[in-house]
Amino acid sequence: MPTITIYTDGSALGNPGPGGYGCVLISGRFRKELSQGYRLTTNNRMELTAVCAALELLKFDGSDVTIYSDSRYVVDAVTKGWVFGWEKKGFAGKKNPDLWRRFLRVYRRHRVRFVWVKGHAETVENNRCDQLAVAAAGDCAHHIEDTGYDASDDGA
């Protein structure tokens, strides 16, 4: 099975506001960049959407994946096991349950390890993801709707 390295980042211009995510996937000599912008969303939703979108691109189940993210929200929820407890309780009272369910579906298809990196630091690929996310957030002509965003729950 292939070994895949993924970098992700999310951005919201206002929180909530227009948002976007960026991903860089690397496997051997292959590299792919991915981004998308949304009309109204939050930073945390974009951080998690980036991870989901990247994992959904993988062609082979059972891949060894390392994800680098500057989102404590995402990294801690997984590495500290919180998301699995939230799942057992039906995500009651938790924000972004639609995205956490989406994440768990694709996460369980692979062997995934998370690594937290400091944002806006020396991690070249994380900085590239930030550029992609910010550009996607600002590109109003190509925004789509974040159908899971609930304005009554700030979604942060």
Account of the 3D structure:
This protein is of the alpha/beta class. The protein has one domain (3-142): Nucleotidyltransferase, domain 5 (2-Layer Sandwich). 36% of the residues lie in helices and 29% in strands. It contains five helices and five strands. It has helices at residues 43-57, 72-79, 82-88, 97-107, 124-138, and strands at 3-12, 17-27, 30-41, 64-69, 111-116. Strands 3-2-1-4-5 form a five-stranded mixed beta sheet. A hairpin with a 4-residue loop joins strand 1 and strand 2. Helix 1 runs parallel beside helix 4 (97-107). The longest helix is centred in the first third of the chain and has 15 residues, at 43-57. The radius of gyration is 15 Å and the shape is globular. The N and C termini lie far apart (36 Å). The relative contact order is 0.27.
Short description:
This protein has a single domain (3-142), classed as Ribonuclease H-like superfamily/Ribonuclease H (Nucleotidyltransferase, domain 5, 2-Layer Sandwich), CATH 3.30.420. Helix content is 36%, strand content 29%. It is built from five helices and five strands; from the N terminus they run βββαβαααβα.
